[in-house]
Amino acid sequence: MNLSNLLRRKLALLLVLMTVFSFPGSTYAYEYFTSWYGNNYEFRSGISSGTYNISHAPKAYNYNGHTYDFYQVYNDALWKWNYKSNSNISTKDNSKTGKLNFYASNYGNNGYYGWVHHYNWDGSRAGSTCLACGPKTDWDYANSALNAYEFDEDGYTSYGYLINVAEHEIGHMLGLAHENDVPAVMNQHSWDWSIQKDDVNGVNNLY
Ligand SMILES: [Zn+2]
Protein backbone atom coordinates (compact mmCIF):
# COMPACT_ATOMS: atom_id res chain seq x y z
CA MET A 1 0.00 0.00 0.00
CA ASN A 2 1.49 3.30 -0.97
CA LEU A 3 1.11 6.49 0.94
CA SER A 4 -1.63 7.98 -1.20
CA ASN A 5 -3.82 4.91 -0.72
CA LEU A 6 -3.32 5.03 2.99
CA LEU A 7 -4.29 8.68 3.08
CA ARG A 8 -7.34 7.99 0.99
CA ARG A 9 -8.45 5.27 3.34
CA LYS A 10 -8.02 7.51 6.30
CA LEU A 11 -9.98 10.23 4.59
CA ALA A 12 -12.74 7.78 3.71
CA LEU A 13 -12.96 6.60 7.29
CA LEU A 14 -12.98 10.19 8.47
CA LEU A 15 -15.83 11.00 6.12
CA VAL A 16 -17.81 8.01 7.42
CA LEU A 17 -17.24 9.11 10.99
CA MET A 18 -18.21 12.67 10.18
CA THR A 19 -21.41 11.44 8.54
CA VAL A 20 -22.32 9.27 11.51
CA PHE A 21 -21.57 11.82 14.17
CA SER A 22 -22.93 14.87 12.45
CA PHE A 23 -26.35 13.35 11.92
CA PRO A 24 -28.87 14.27 13.04
CA GLY A 25 -28.24 15.94 16.37
CA SER A 26 -25.32 18.26 15.86
CA THR A 27 -27.23 21.29 14.64
CA TYR A 28 -29.08 21.29 17.91
CA ALA A 29 -29.18 19.07 20.94
CA TYR A 30 -30.81 21.27 23.54
CA GLU A 31 -33.88 19.96 25.28
CA TYR A 32 -37.04 21.74 26.34
CA PHE A 33 -39.54 20.68 28.94
CA THR A 34 -41.25 19.02 26.01
CA SER A 35 -38.95 16.07 26.59
CA TRP A 36 -40.39 15.70 30.07
CA TYR A 37 -44.05 16.50 29.51
CA GLY A 38 -44.89 16.67 25.81
CA ASN A 39 -45.09 20.37 25.01
CA ASN A 40 -42.70 23.31 24.84
CA TYR A 41 -43.28 25.65 27.73
CA GLU A 42 -42.02 29.21 28.03
CA PHE A 43 -42.56 32.58 29.60
CA ARG A 44 -45.98 33.77 28.49
CA SER A 45 -44.65 37.27 27.83
CA GLY A 46 -41.31 36.30 26.35
CA ILE A 47 -37.75 37.06 27.45
CA SER A 48 -37.22 40.48 25.92
CA SER A 49 -38.63 42.41 28.85
CA GLY A 50 -39.50 42.08 32.49
CA THR A 51 -37.89 42.80 35.80
CA TYR A 52 -35.88 40.56 38.08
CA ASN A 53 -35.67 40.53 41.86
CA ILE A 54 -32.35 39.62 43.44
CA SER A 55 -33.05 40.92 46.95
CA HIS A 56 -33.47 37.40 48.36
CA ALA A 57 -29.94 36.40 47.34
CA PRO A 58 -27.63 37.37 50.24
CA LYS A 59 -24.33 39.13 49.55
CA ALA A 60 -22.53 37.57 52.51
CA TYR A 61 -24.16 34.31 53.48
CA ASN A 62 -22.21 32.43 56.13
CA TYR A 63 -22.47 28.69 56.42
CA ASN A 64 -20.06 26.27 58.07
CA GLY A 65 -17.04 28.55 57.82
CA HIS A 66 -17.60 29.73 54.27
CA THR A 67 -19.02 33.05 53.10
CA TYR A 68 -20.98 33.05 49.87
CA ASP A 69 -21.83 36.08 47.74
CA PHE A 70 -24.95 34.65 46.15
CA TYR A 71 -25.99 38.12 45.00
CA GLN A 72 -22.87 38.47 42.85
CA VAL A 73 -23.12 34.90 41.57
CA TYR A 74 -26.68 35.33 40.33
CA ASN A 75 -25.99 38.81 39.01
CA ASP A 76 -23.04 37.57 36.94
CA ALA A 77 -24.93 34.51 35.68
CA LEU A 78 -27.92 36.59 34.58
CA TRP A 79 -25.63 39.10 32.87
CA LYS A 80 -24.05 36.25 30.90
CA TRP A 81 -27.42 34.98 29.70
CA ASN A 82 -28.56 38.46 28.74
CA TYR A 83 -25.29 39.11 26.92
CA LYS A 84 -25.10 35.80 25.04
CA SER A 85 -28.74 35.05 24.22
CA ASN A 86 -31.90 36.92 23.28
CA SER A 87 -32.82 37.10 26.95
CA ASN A 88 -33.09 40.71 28.07
CA ILE A 89 -34.49 40.48 31.56
CA SER A 90 -32.16 43.18 32.78
CA THR A 91 -34.24 45.61 34.83
CA LYS A 92 -33.83 45.10 38.54
CA ASP A 93 -36.85 45.74 40.76
CA ASN A 94 -36.42 44.37 44.25
CA SER A 95 -39.75 45.77 45.42
CA LYS A 96 -41.98 43.19 43.80
CA THR A 97 -42.12 39.77 42.19
CA GLY A 98 -40.11 39.83 39.00
CA LYS A 99 -40.09 37.55 36.02
CA LEU A 100 -36.92 36.03 37.52
CA ASN A 101 -36.50 35.83 41.31
CA PHE A 102 -33.32 34.64 42.98
CA TYR A 103 -33.02 32.94 46.36
CA ALA A 104 -30.23 31.25 48.28
CA SER A 105 -29.99 29.77 51.75
CA ASN A 106 -29.27 26.58 53.69
CA TYR A 107 -32.11 24.36 52.57
CA GLY A 108 -30.63 21.24 54.16
CA ASN A 109 -29.80 17.81 52.81
CA ASN A 110 -32.25 17.55 49.90
CA GLY A 111 -29.79 16.38 47.24
CA TYR A 112 -29.88 19.55 45.10
CA TYR A 113 -27.35 22.34 44.63
CA GLY A 114 -30.13 24.37 43.04
CA TRP A 115 -33.58 24.15 41.53
CA VAL A 116 -36.24 26.23 39.83
CA HIS A 117 -39.98 26.54 40.26
CA HIS A 118 -42.25 28.11 37.65
CA TYR A 119 -45.38 30.03 38.65
CA ASN A 120 -48.48 31.74 37.35
CA TRP A 121 -49.05 35.34 38.45
CA ASP A 122 -51.70 34.13 40.93
CA GLY A 123 -48.90 32.32 42.79
CA SER A 124 -49.86 28.80 41.80
CA ARG A 125 -47.17 26.47 40.45
CA ALA A 126 -47.18 26.16 36.67
CA GLY A 127 -48.37 22.63 36.48
CA SER A 128 -46.08 20.57 38.67
CA THR A 129 -45.21 20.72 42.34
CA CYS A 130 -42.29 18.38 43.04
CA LEU A 131 -38.99 19.86 44.20
CA ALA A 132 -37.07 19.94 40.93
CA CYS A 133 -39.69 19.36 38.26
CA GLY A 134 -40.16 21.39 35.12
CA PRO A 135 -43.46 23.17 34.50
CA LYS A 136 -46.34 21.57 32.65
CA THR A 137 -47.75 24.82 31.27
CA ASP A 138 -46.42 28.20 30.15
CA TRP A 139 -45.52 30.36 33.12
CA ASP A 140 -45.42 33.98 34.24
CA TYR A 141 -42.44 33.99 36.59
CA ALA A 142 -39.75 31.65 37.91
CA ASN A 143 -37.89 31.36 41.21
CA SER A 144 -34.41 29.88 41.56
CA ALA A 145 -32.83 28.58 44.77
CA LEU A 146 -29.19 27.75 45.54
CA ASN A 147 -28.53 25.46 48.48
CA ALA A 148 -25.49 26.30 50.63
CA TYR A 149 -25.81 22.98 52.44
CA GLU A 150 -25.11 20.84 49.38
CA PHE A 151 -22.26 23.03 48.07
CA ASP A 152 -20.62 22.74 51.47
CA GLU A 153 -21.35 19.03 51.86
CA ASP A 154 -19.52 18.18 48.61
CA GLY A 155 -16.74 20.78 48.92
CA TYR A 156 -17.92 22.84 45.93
CA THR A 157 -17.71 26.13 47.73
CA SER A 158 -15.84 28.29 45.21
CA TYR A 159 -17.29 30.94 42.92
CA GLY A 160 -16.76 28.75 39.82
CA TYR A 161 -19.05 26.01 41.07
CA LEU A 162 -21.69 28.42 42.32
CA ILE A 163 -21.93 30.37 39.07
CA ASN A 164 -22.00 27.13 37.08
CA VAL A 165 -25.14 26.09 38.95
CA ALA A 166 -26.61 29.60 38.76
CA GLU A 167 -26.20 29.63 34.96
CA HIS A 168 -27.76 26.15 34.81
CA GLU A 169 -30.75 27.21 36.92
CA ILE A 170 -31.33 30.33 34.82
CA GLY A 171 -31.35 28.03 31.80
CA HIS A 172 -34.23 26.17 33.46
CA MET A 173 -35.94 29.50 34.24
CA LEU A 174 -35.80 30.43 30.55
CA GLY A 175 -37.26 27.09 29.44
CA LEU A 176 -34.41 24.59 28.95
CA ALA A 177 -34.41 21.06 30.33
CA HIS A 178 -31.31 18.89 30.78
CA GLU A 179 -29.07 18.14 27.81
CA ASN A 180 -26.52 15.47 28.66
CA ASP A 181 -25.20 14.53 25.21
CA VAL A 182 -23.21 17.64 24.26
CA PRO A 183 -21.19 20.39 25.95
CA ALA A 184 -23.85 22.53 27.59
CA VAL A 185 -24.41 24.34 30.83
CA MET A 186 -27.62 22.31 30.92
CA ASN A 187 -25.52 19.11 30.98
CA GLN A 188 -26.14 17.88 34.51
CA HIS A 189 -23.19 15.50 34.56
CA SER A 190 -20.39 18.05 34.36
CA TRP A 191 -19.13 21.24 35.96
CA ASP A 192 -16.98 21.95 32.89
CA TRP A 193 -19.16 24.23 30.84
CA SER A 194 -20.42 27.74 31.17
CA ILE A 195 -23.25 28.80 28.80
CA GLN A 196 -22.54 27.10 25.46
CA LYS A 197 -23.71 27.70 21.89
CA ASP A 198 -26.17 24.83 22.30
CA ASP A 199 -27.73 26.50 25.34
CA VAL A 200 -28.01 29.84 23.53
CA ASN A 201 -29.54 28.19 20.46
CA GLY A 202 -32.07 26.47 22.66
CA VAL A 203 -33.26 29.67 24.32
CA ASN A 204 -33.23 31.72 21.14
CA ASN A 205 -35.23 29.12 19.21
CA LEU A 206 -37.87 28.79 21.91
CA TYR A 207 -39.00 32.42 21.83
ZN1 LIG B 1 -31.14 21.00 36.24
What does this structure look like?
With 207 residues, this protein is α/β, with parallel strands linked by helices. The protein has one domain (37-206): Collagenase (Catalytic Domain) (3-Layer(aba) Sandwich), CATH 3.40.390.10. The chain contains 6 helices and 7 strands, in the order ααβββαββββααα. It has helices at 3-21, 34-37, 70-84, 148-153, 159-174, 197-206; strands spanning 51-53, 61-63, 66-68, 91-92, 100-105, 114-119, 141-147. The strands form 2 sheets. A 5-stranded mixed beta sheet has the order 4-1-5-7-6. Strands 2-3 form a two-stranded antiparallel ribbon. Helix 3 packs across helix 5 (159-174). The protein is globular and about 45 Å long. Zinc ion is lined by residues 168, 172, 178, 188.
Could you give a short description of this structure?
With 207 residues, the protein is of the alpha/beta class. The chain has a single domain, classed as Collagenase (Catalytic Domain) (3-Layer(aba) Sandwich), CATH 3.40.390.
Number of domains: 1
Order of helices and strands: HHEEEHEEEEHHH
Radius of gyration: 20 Å
**At CATH's second level, what is the architecture?**
3-Layer(aba) Sandwich
Helical content class: 25-40%
Class of secondary structure makeup: alpha/beta
The CATH topology is Collagenase (Catalytic Domain)
Query: Beta-strand level of the residues, as a percent range?
Result: 5-15%
User: What sort of overall outline do the alpha carbons produce when their principal axes are compared?
Assistant: globular
The side-by-side strand order for the widest beta sheet comes to 4-1-5-7-6
Terminal CA distance reads 55 Å
Protein name: Matrixin
Pfam family, one: Peptidase_M10
Signal peptide: 1-29
Domain Peptidase M10 metallopeptidase: 136-207
